[in-house]
Amino acid sequence: MPSHSATPPAGLTGQPSGGTAPSPVFTSEDRARFGSDPARSFATNLQEVRDRIAAACHRSGRQPEDVRLLPVTKTVPAPILRLAVATGLGEFGENKLQEARDKQAVLGDLPIRWSIIGHLQTNKVRHLVRLATEFHALGSLRLAEELNRRLDAEGRDLDVFVQVNTSGEDSKYGLRPEELMPFAERLPQYPRLRPRGLMTLAVFSTEAERVRRCFRLLRALRDRAMAVHPGLTQLSMGMSGDYDVAIEEGADVVRVGQALFGPRPAGDALYWPGSLSPGT
């Protein structure tokens, strides 16, 4: 998978300060959830995900290295993430900022890049800009303005994806499709933001064609938006239940959680509003 080039915030690179990194310590709850050999379970899951990515790329005439796997680590404890880093993964996506902050504090000896992929309130922006290298849920000018202001104060930039509500569900965040072009025209007003592309959550459905329509719509919107803002080139779409369909429709980034780490104890609706079926 391609490496991500965003520069971590100053002081939060996660580089070891010296000595040996601590070995993972698993609780009884960890072993009940992830099995008696969590390292082997995760390695097996990771290979299966990579194989599915490769197969989807083959079907659509693409190269697997052109699709970036963003592991989604909500509810996954820090010891399991140490195993993921040991396999060569160096970036994780979190829906909730506080959960990302807690894990970063524990895993600060590791060179991890954190992406925030869930809805963000403006009063949490100051924490995001000190932690994240990437934000996948930009959906309002008010949030863009606050991000730009805080980033400027920190003297750094941030990669962002503009979230679009392609399913039309009231429970989901993001711009309506007709709002995207005016929004893209305003993005140059916020020079600390580095727009990379568009993000969406497809409709939660077992009907593959309904899901596919959401991805096709985002791709069409991306093609139009690039004429307004040339930086909006990438598509962040696809989760554990549908990332192969997303790849077939042009996904550059797939956000995968449960296929890597197994079912999570909390319902998806806690993280993805309107969720009716397995999510990331």
The total of helices stands at 10
Query: How much is the radius of gyration in Å?
Result: 18 Å
* Average of pLDDT: 89
Structural classification:
alpha/beta
N- to C-terminal distance: 19 Å
**Uncertain residue segments:** 1-8, 10-19, 269-278
Secondary structure tally: strands: 8
Helix content: 25-40%
Strand percentage? 5-15%
Largest sheet: 6 strands, parallel
SSE topology string? HHEHEHEHEHEHEHEHEH
- The order of strands across the largest sheet is 2-3-4-5-6-7
Tell me the overall shape: globular
Give the SSE layout.
Elements: H1 28-34, H2 38-59, E1 68-71, H3 78-86, E2 91-94, H4 97-106, E3 113-116, H5 125-131, E4 134-138, H6 141-154, E5 158-163, H7 180-186, E6 193-199, H8 208-225, E7 234-236, H9 243-248, E8 253-256, H10 258-261
Parallel strand pairs: 1-8, 2-3, 3-4, 4-5, 5-6, 6-7
Helix pairs in contact: 5-6
